[in-house]
Amino acid sequence: MKIATGDWQCIRAVRLALLLPGIVAALAPPQTGMDLNRQAIELAQNGDLHGALDKFHLALKFEPESQEILNNVGVTLMRMGRFSEALKALDQALSIDPNHRDATENRRELLEFMEQKPGSVGQYDIPQLEPRLKFPRIPYHELDHPENKDYALGRKPFILTGAANNWEMFKKGPDWVWDRLYTDFGNSTADFYPHNMGRSSIRPYLVPIWKALDEFRHPSGDFHSDPAYPGTYIQWNVPLNDWRTLRQSMIPMPNAFADDERWLAKCLEHDHLINEYSLRLHWRMVLIGTKDAGMFFHRDVLRGSSWQAQVSGSKRWTICDPVANNGRLYEAGDVNTFAPDLVKFPKFAQTICYDDVVMAGEMIFYPQDYWHQTLNMATPTITISGTMVDHNNLQGVEQELESECKRGKWNWHLSSDLCDALEECYHL
After folding, report:
1. What percentage of the chain carries pLDDT values higher than 70?
2. Which positions does the entry assign to TPR repeats (predicted)?
3. Domain boundary assignment for the chain
4. What is the pTM for the complete model shown?
C-alpha cells in the first residue's frame, strides 16, 4: 500500500511507500528492514525527521537494494531541505528500478522546484549555515604570554596543546587506562548508556565500572538499547580519593585547570564534603565512548567553566557563545549541530559557532554558559573532564548553588552540612 504525505509547500504530492501493514507490538524488536521502514514513516508523519532518517538508514542496512526505502530517504531529505542528498538517494533508487513511479515523480518535482527557486522551501528562503570557526590552538608553554591573556583568564574557548600528551596515562595508552579503571576503580559506580547520550531524555543504568567496561567491549544484551541511536557511553563521576590517585598520572596540569582543587580544599576543608560536592555536581568525570557516541547540544546548568583532556581517540565539538548567539540556540537537545534541520530551526543558521576536532593529547576549554555538543570520532574515545570556578563565573555558580540549597532547584540533594559550608566558598 502507498500513501501520500500531502502537499509540501512547492513540492507537491510527495509519496512515501508504506509497506507491511499492521502494528508491531511496542516492545518487539524490529525483525526486518521493512519493519524499520514502517516505523520511520510513522516518525516522519509525526514530524521527527531526524529520527525517521536514522530509522531509514538502519533499514537500508537490512535491505540496501530496496528502492522503496531509498525513495523514502529521498523524500525525508527533501523535507529537511537537504536537496542534493535527496537527489542522490532518488537517483540510487532509480538505478535499481528505473521504472519506480514514486522515485521518478519525486525526482522530477524536486528538480523543477530547485530550478524555480534554488535554495528555498516554498515561499521561504532556506537558511544557509554560517561558516563555522576553528578553535585557536595554544601551546602549553605560551598560555601565559600577554597575547593569550583572554584564554589564560578563561574568557574564550580554546584548545591547549603540549600538556596532556605528556601525561603518564596518555603515554602508556588507552589499554593501560582501561586496565587501571578495571582493576583499581572497578567497584566504583558509573553511569552506563548503551543507547548513547544524543538526546536529553536518555537516562543511564547505574553499574560498577567493571560491568560497564565489560558491556562496552562485549555487550551481553542485558541492557536495552535502540539501534536507531547507536553508540555506547560511560560516564564516571570520580570520587575524591580516586581523583587524587588518577591525578598522579595527569602531570603537568595547567595551573588554571587546577584552581578548583585549591578552591575546594580552602572553602570546604573536609574531605567528605569535597567528595559529596564532586559526586553530586559531576565535578570531575572520566568519559568513555564508541565512535558516533556523544552528548546532545546543551549548556551546563551549574554555570561553571569546563575543560576536557583527550586521552585517547578524537572528539568533534560544537561550541557556541551564548551572548553572540542569543535567541538562536533553541532548547537543550533540539538542534543536532552536526546535521542541523534548518527548516525546523532556521535561526540556528545565523549562529557563529566553533566546529572542530580535539585530537588525542589535546585539551579543550570553554567558559561559563557556552553551549556545546560532542561526537566521538573513534573507538574507544577516552576523556577526562573537570569543572572550574573563577572570577568570570563565580556569581552564576553561587546563584545556582543557593537556589539548590534553598529550593532544591535541580534536585541534586545537597546535604545541609555542604550547603552551610558553601556559604564560605562564595567569599573566596
Report:
1. 89
2. 67-100
3. 33-116, 137-426
4. 0.73
